[in-house]
């Protein structure tokens, strides 16, 4: 209403404010968009401006054994992590929200802590433990490491849903004579499903793009895609990396749209 | 040192040779002192215990339900793959070599001494560089993230809000390696910025935008600014817009209303977001090693070097403990601020 009163003097300020924010959004998005330019640009090394359009780099990416092996390994690990973290994280969220556990706040902070502690240290600590245990660097070790990092995401989305929904629905069911087990399976579980799914989607991408935890836990010829890309980039910077990056970007876009559909992105505002 | 100080305490009759009972007393006093110190720093240890006690009595009436058992798999995962490994890392930092593989391994503090003495003159520099990059990244992320978060929090259109939120979260979900690659294509000598500036005739030689601290910070800011934005949107969105409108109807300009009303109210969020970004950027490895070239050496890079090149897991562990200590301080502060924010929300 005060805007209506003093409309003219604020126009410039408002325009500057809007312009600044659009600029900041561009800062976030342009680097991602620019990767597509390089994925399609036919020059042998990264160079600008682009001189044409080719799918050569995508061919190279999909025909290089190292890239493909690591892509499949990353997808396989991410799928395992999705299942494990959904089961473990979903169960944990239920226990935290409905189990009347003592020290609930502490436990929640504890289960969220892998997000805050340096991931490279989690990798280092696991590397040293596997070394000490003499088990080498098995793929299941990497899967467990990724699951550890992914559980907090599932926990967060599931807890968000659990806190939001009306407990009286459960109470109504039990007043009407449903056993606690039945209430759980027929009321609670269907209601938290979107939150658990959203967490699973998050877990998948967190594992697929994971670098710092994987760094010390992969074996030569058994590296995940981000590690292969990182090693490649240290020596070569060509369109194949850009093509490989498109996989990650498309996945991120898919995930964002899925999350928006499942529980709405607003749930992520309170990190 | 602290034992000596306590033993000289006039109230301790045992003097220089404390008896077992004396030691117990000293121990108890030290705990009390620690609790006091924690109190001063704001951590109410005794209060927390009392609180737990109350909760215990509350739980007695509402016993843990069978659902509580669902926590078991997560607990097992976290003990085996999180708590134990970190304990192993700390333990390894005190061994001369792998205590299982090598029977001659001894307990030593030499890894820490090596870091403290720093005869090669690189470790302290690396620590300082890590912290400096963290601080600069945090400040720049705040300067970029705040306006964006303010704009998004106050956006009326639901569609606009959803779209901008997608624009912030999509980069967040894109891999770190991919985002660093994007900045390499932009900042390198033949990258987007340099070739454009040269073709416009503004410069003749490429600007040194990469393989230095500048490039590292730019890429790190891009990677971590979404965390700042997401933290701030929540906090700013919670501030009642009518407060600012009231200030303005009382004659304050738009800027003054913001500086004197909204900004102070959002400070806890600013602090929480800054701590988060700082904690993330001091542990970054990919970006400094690709964007920094040989000019930048941070603690995480040093750790990777010890593992991959020098194969010195003991020293890597010691460096890890140094980084972990810094992070833990930040994590505790961050959680306290978040708890306070949640408390305010509960009261409102």
Structure write-up:
- The complex is a heterodimer of chains A (271) and B (348).
- With 271 residues, chain A is mostly helical.
- Chain A has one domain: MetI-like (MetI-like fold).
- In chain A, 76% of the residues lie in helices and 0% in strands.
- In chain A, helix 4 packs across helix 7 (139-164).
- The two termini of chain A are 33 Å apart.
- Mean pLDDT of chain A is 86; it is low at 1-7.
- Chain B is mainly alpha-helical.
- Chain B has two domains: 1-63, no CATH class; 117-347, MetI-like (MetI-like fold), CATH 1.10.3720.
- Chain B contains 15 helices and no strands.
- In chain B, helix 5 (110-117) packs across helix 15 (313-347), helix 6 packs antiparallel against helix 12 and helix 7 runs antiparallel to helix 10 (213-238).
- The longest helix of chain B is centred in the last third of the chain and has 35 residues, at 313-347.
- Chain B is globular, with a radius of gyration of 26 Å.
- The two termini of chain B are 48 Å apart.
- The model of chain B is unreliable at 1-61 (pLDDT under 50).
- The chains are: A mainly alpha (271), B mainly alpha (348).
**Helical content band of chain B:** over 70%
Number of helices of chain B: 15
The N- to C-terminal Cα distance of chain B equals 48 Å
Helix and strand sequence of chain B: HHHHHHHHHHHHHHH
- Low-pLDDT parts of chain B are 1-61
Q: Helical segment tally of chain A? A: 12
Instruction: Give the helix/strand class of chain A.
Output: mainly alpha
Radius of gyration of chain A: 23 Å
- Ends of chain A: how far apart? 33 Å
Overall pLDDT of chain B? 80
User: What proportion of the residues of chain A form beta strands (DSSP E)?
Assistant: under 5%
How much of the sequence lies in strands of chain B comes to under 5%
- Oligomeric state of the chains present here: heterodimer
CATH topology of chain A: MetI-like fold
CATH superfamily of chain A: MetI-like
């Amino acid at each position: 209403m005060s805007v209506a009163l003093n409309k003219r003097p604020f126009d410039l300020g408002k325009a500057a404010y809007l312009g600044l924010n659009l600029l900041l959004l561009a800062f976030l998005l342009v680097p991602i968009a620019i990767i597509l330019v390089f994925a399609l640009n036919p020059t042998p090394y990264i160079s600008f401006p682009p001189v044409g359009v080719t799918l050569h780099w995508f061919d190279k990416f999909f025909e290089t054994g190292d890239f493909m092996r690591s892509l499949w390994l990353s997808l396989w690990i991410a799928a395992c992590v999705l299942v494990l973290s959904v089961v473990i994280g979903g169960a944990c969220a239920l226990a935290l929200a409905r189990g009347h556990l003592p020290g609930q706040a502490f436990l929640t902070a504890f289960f969220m802590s892998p997000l805050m502690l340096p991931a490279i240290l989690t990798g280092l600590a696991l590397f040293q433990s596997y070394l000490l245990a003499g088990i080498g660097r098995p793929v299941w070790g990497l899967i467990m490491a990724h699951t550890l990092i992914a559980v907090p995401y599932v926990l967060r989305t599931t807890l968000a849903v659990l806190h939001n929904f009306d407990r009286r629905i459960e109470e109504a069911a039990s007043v009407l004579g449903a056993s606690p087990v039945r209430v759980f399976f027929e009321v609670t579980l269907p209601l938290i499903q979107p939150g658990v799914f959203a967490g699973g989607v998050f877990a998948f991408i967190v594992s697929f793009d994971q670098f710092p935890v994987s760094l010390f836990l992969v074996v030569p010829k058994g590296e995940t895609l981000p590690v292969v890309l990182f090693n490649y980039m240290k020596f070569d910077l060509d369109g194949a990396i850009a093509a490989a990056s498109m996989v990650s970007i498309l996945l991120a876009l898919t995930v964002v749209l899925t999350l928006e559909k499942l529980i709405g992105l607003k749930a992520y505002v309170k990190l | 040192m602290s034992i000596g100080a306590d033993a000289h305490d006039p109230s301790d009759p045992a003097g220089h040779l404390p008896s077992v009972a004396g030691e117990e007393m000293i121990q108890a006093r030290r705990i009390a002192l620690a609790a006091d110190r924690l109190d001063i720093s704001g951590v109410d240890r005794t209060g927390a215990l009392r609180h737990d006690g109350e909760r215990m009595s509350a739980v007695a009436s509402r016993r843990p339900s069978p659902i509580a058992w669902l926590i078991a798999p997560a607990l097992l995962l976290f003990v085996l793959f999180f708590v134990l490994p970190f304990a192993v890392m700390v333990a390894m930092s005190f061994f001369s070599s792998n205590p299982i593989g090598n029977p001659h391994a001894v307990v030593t503090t030499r890894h820490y001494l090596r870091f403290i003495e720093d005869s090669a003159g690189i470790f302290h520099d690396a620590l300082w560089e890590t912290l400096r990059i963290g601080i600069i990244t945090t400040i720049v992320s705040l300067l970029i993230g705040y306006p964006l978060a303010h704009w998004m929090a106050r956006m009326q259109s639901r569609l606009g809000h959803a779209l901008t939120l997608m624009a912030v979260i999509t980069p967040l979900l894109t891999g770190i390696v991919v985002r660093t690659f994007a900045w390499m294509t932009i900042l390198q000598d033949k990258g987007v910025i340099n070739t454009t500036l040269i073709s416009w005739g503004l410069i003749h030689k490429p600007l040194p935008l990469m393989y230095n601290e500048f490039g590292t910070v730019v890429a790190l800011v891009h990677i971590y600014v979404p965390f700042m934005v997401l933290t701030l949107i929540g906090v700013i969105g919670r501030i009642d817009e009518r407060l600012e409108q009231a200030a303005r109807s009382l004659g304050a300009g738009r800027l003054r209303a913001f500086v004197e009303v909204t900004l102070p109210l959002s400070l806890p969020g600013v602090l929480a977001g800054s701590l988060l970004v700082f904690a993330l950027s001091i542990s970054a490895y990919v970006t400094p090693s690709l964007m920094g070239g040989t000019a930048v050496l941070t603690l995480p890079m040093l750790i990777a070097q010890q593992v991959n090149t020098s194969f010195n897991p003991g020293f890597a562990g010691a460096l890890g403990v140094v980084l972990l200590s810094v992070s833990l301080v930040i994590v505790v502060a961050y959680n306290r601020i978040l708890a306070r924010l949640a408390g305010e929300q509960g009261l409102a």
